Structure to design on (279 residues):
């Protein structure tokens, strides 16, 4: 991967010779996890390694954590994209608040220019001793004073009342496995996405939903938003609850709880794959 910086280091471009090392099978769930890996790789090299170190955002007592994400998968991913072709991810800071910031990423085919995916990630600075959010350094907010005036992009959707909605609902239990954890044995961010997709896959087989039924891989994923509220560790038992959106049957909401406490909220919008659309 090649990383270049522009606009005094405020914009980064990460270029991939190809994306064949990522699990991009153009079938909804695997594609989403693969795209998350691509975006994470470029976010680390194009933002964390540069912006964070330049402004000394981390220390022994401070850490950067993802609070929420929104991923939009564009139609060209299912129609024109090939992982064998070079791709480019452009990263920029689009909002800075008191304790958090929002990074926008636009992943596109380098030569054709077609957008593959757009992602918004809210990252928050946390005091590791108190586990509470901490103000961003003054040097950082001063450098991004113009961005602080911009409205924060809407990253996370409103959620339904999971306790009262009983129709078009499916519950799924999962235990955090070793392969789902990081060095500190905490469940990784994308593990929660996998848990939600697994819940939807079993729910579709059981025809728990009115529109998304049978084989989940027959449906593309068009958009996903997720909010991280707390953490889980190796061997924790989690309850994943899914329910269909009342106004859009192709949208499914998810709640993940540990010991009755909500730790993750997620919404995934499904479409029809390009293969089915041609039928």
């Amino acid at each position: 991967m090649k990383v270049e910086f522009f606009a005094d280091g405020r914009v980064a471009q990460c270029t991939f010779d190809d994306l064949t090392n990522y699990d991009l099978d153009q079938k909804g769930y695997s594609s989403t996890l693969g795209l998350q890996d691509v975006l994470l790789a470029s976010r680390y090299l194009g933002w964390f390694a540069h912006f964070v170190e330049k402004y000394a955002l981390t220390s022994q007592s401070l850490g950067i954590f993802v609070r929420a994400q929104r991923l939009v998968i564009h139609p060209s991913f299912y129609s024109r994209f090939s992982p064998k072709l070079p791709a480019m991810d452009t990263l920029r800071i689009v909002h800075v608040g008191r304790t958090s910031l929002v990074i926008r990423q636009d992943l596109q085919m380098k030569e054709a220019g077609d957008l593959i995916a757009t992602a918004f990630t809210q990252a928050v600075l946390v005091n590791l001793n108190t586990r509470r959010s901490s103000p961003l350094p003054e040097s950082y907010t001063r450098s991004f004073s113009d961005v602080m005036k911009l409205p924060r992009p809407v990253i996370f959707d409103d959620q339904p009342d999971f306790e009262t909605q009983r129709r078009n609902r499916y519950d799924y239990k999962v235990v955090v496995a070793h392969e789902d954890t990081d060095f500190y044995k905490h469940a990784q961010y994308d593990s929660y996405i996998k848990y939600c997709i697994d819940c939807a896959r079993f729910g579709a087989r059981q025809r728990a939903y009115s529109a998304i039924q049978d084989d989940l891989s027959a449906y593309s994923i068009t958009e996903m938003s997720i909010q991280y509220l707390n953490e889980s560790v190796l061997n924790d038992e989690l309850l994943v609850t899914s329910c269909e959106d009342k106004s859009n049957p192709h949208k499914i909401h998810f709640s993940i709880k540990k010991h009755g406490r909500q730790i993750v909220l997620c919404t995934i919008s499904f479409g029809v794959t390009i293969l089915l659309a041609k039928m």
The mean pLDDT is 88. The CA atoms of residues 48 and 108 lie 21 Å apart. The helical segments are 29-54, 75-79, 138-143, 145-148, 189-205, 274-277. The domain at 169-277 is CATH 3.10.129.10 (Thiol Ester Dehydrase; Chain A).
